[in-house]
Structure of Class I SAM-dependent methyltransferase:
Amino acid sequence: MRQARLSRKTDSGKCYDRAYFDRWYRGAEARERRLITERKAALAVSMAEFLLGQPVRRVLDVCCGEAGWRAPLLKLRPTLQYQGLDSSEYAVRRFGRSRDIGLARFAQLAELRFSHSVDLLICSDALHYIATAELKRGLSGFAELCHGLVFADMFCAGDGAEGDDIGFIARRPAQYRRWFADAGLRQIGPHCYATPALLPRLDGLEAPPE
């Protein structure tokens, strides 16, 4: 397929076009990246199902890129409904129909709603590239988009992250915790956050003290 000419630039000047995904998601490191994503998917699904007491049926994957999480999720739960969202016009044009990807900037999550909230909301390896104002705005919609678990992994200042450092914003962990708390989300495990709808279902030692 010809490279799509449409591709959205971020505030940092990054362009999530075909060349970007070819560089970071294919080639020699692609297999290791897939294995890491599979482990993350297993963690997120098992944690959500344990806390909800039922299989994960609906997943929203924001900042999904080419939907690298879709296959591992469907391998675990073949009947789940997957919806991806990304700001890359290239990714949506090339894979939107085949991989269920819609076009949306992160800030639009403050207003964007679907017919049903989801059991699991994923935002993987993305928040450390998003400007603060847009990040806080988008996070404000998570509690209505998801009634279960949010899985959002990111790197912070001092983590020693490797890979794409263009536009990387080195924030302190406390900043993310404060913004997640402001959005009604409470950390309950590695990169796992309970939504307000899920919190009342947790036992005393399933969530850390506030």
